[in-house]
Design goal:
single chain, Rossmann fold, D-amino Acid Aminotransferase, Chain A, domain 1, Dna Ligase, domain 1, five-stranded antiparallel sheet, 30% helix, globular
Length: 292
Amino acid sequence: MTPHIAIVSYFSTGAYDTNTVDENLLLSSILEKLGISHQIVAWSDPAVDWSSFSCLLIKSTWDYFDFYEEFKSWMKAMRKLGVPVLNSLDTLEWNSSKRYLLEIEAKGFPVIAGLILEKGMEVSTSTVLEKITSEILIVKPLVSGGAKNTFKIAKKDWASNQVKIQNLVNEEAYLVQPFVKEVQEVGEYSLIFFNGKFSHAVLKTPATEDFRVQHYFGGTIHAIDPTSQMLDSCQKLVANFGKDSLYARVDGVVCGGEFYLMELEMIEPYLFLTSSTEALSNYEKAIASRLL
């Protein structure tokens, strides 16, 4: 069977891809160079005949958390269809909820994990404040991305925001995490791996007085060479939790000389393919080894 690949993206509204290099087009150029037939399609497009593809490359499904139930139904349909998916459907399902952070923490890895407020539960102020010891807390949906609906709140102000927080939790599950000052002071590191092998790394620095490192909130990005200790920590995370992944992005921060995981992105990460001369060629080699 002649390969025909779907580059799986989303219907862009500009919310998550402003001022970015279109990595769908970069992936398309790689597949064209490799002589592989392909098409860029949105996961939510009802007109797509998914059975016509020999493999689905999940690239930029950046609105999956806005339509999570629909996305889960789509994954279920793809599973039933039996078309190979990279990264795998098992990986997508596991990685789509930040619940995985607590699982990684429970296995002994340094993680900025936090406390889950399950949907509909009665939020206990005392429990939250006992569990999260920092003076500032970060609150975000358990299923989210791009810093959507993410805010920080001082511990001293938690009680006065109790009603607001309870209303949010009545609608969906949330994750409460400690605010990590190193993110604001230094930035968040991203190390990208292809087929389990390190490719390149960047440091994402938030705008002044902000804590969100995303570029559309004014964050800046710089290519870096990770320390051997940081690389070793990230390599172990990928080896343990992303063994069969075409791509994985390990996001974290260094606290007291130790690397702490903040996100293990294996569902739709931006890969910073133009940040170094090696990134694009490493991606091409990884794809060729999977598809050719």
